[in-house]
Amino acid sequence: MASKEELMKKLEEKIRNCKKCPLWQLRTNPVPGDGSYDAKVMFVGEAPGYWEDQQGLPFVGKAGKVLDELLKGIGLNRREVYITNIVKCRPPNNRDPTEEEIKACAPYLDAQIDIIRPRIIVTLGRFSMGYILRKYGFQVEPISKIHGKVFEARTLFGKVYIVPMYHPAVALYRPQLRKELEEDFRKLKDLIEKVV
């Protein structure tokens, strides 16, 4: 049986060579994801931005700095978690990912979840929230209503807890929401202590 590392390396190779939607024509680097393949907590953002596209790593721009601060605030670092996006290539001008792009790319995210088997999936932003909640059979409501709530899903590999959160970029353009993000991360810390 292949190890998690072998499975992930193979999957990352597939992502690097992907041409399932037009975004591949514009990318500098696809961004498969980064972190521990044994992570108990997985963060799923929306799509790479400029710096992510340059470096081939998720959350390395300004929003990534906010994410690092939030992680540090609850005693976690990037090496312990796994961070990825629902769409692996940068949409032009950082626009929102389209339904087609999400549909083309989602099987990669599904495979990452199956390989890593996290106990907790934290969705960052409304696109990853919508996809993950639907995938596990939940009703999707506005993120302003359900951020920080814990959804419990059953999977073939056991229970998984889903925690929708605002995208860390929100702290940059709506600073008043940073407090809510920090509060949601405190709830995440409590959940980690309970289930991991």
From TrEMBL:
The keyword DNA repair is assigned to this record: yes
Protein name: Type-4 uracil-DNA glycosylase
NCBIfam families: Arch_udg, UDG_fam4
TM helices/strands, residue ranges: none
Enzyme nomenclature, EC number: 3.2.2.27
Catalyzed chemical reaction(s): Hydrolyzes single-stranded DNA or mismatched double-stranded DNA and polynucleotides, releasing free uracil
Similarity comment: Belongs to the uracil-DNA glycosylase (UDG) superfamily. Type 4 (UDGa) family.
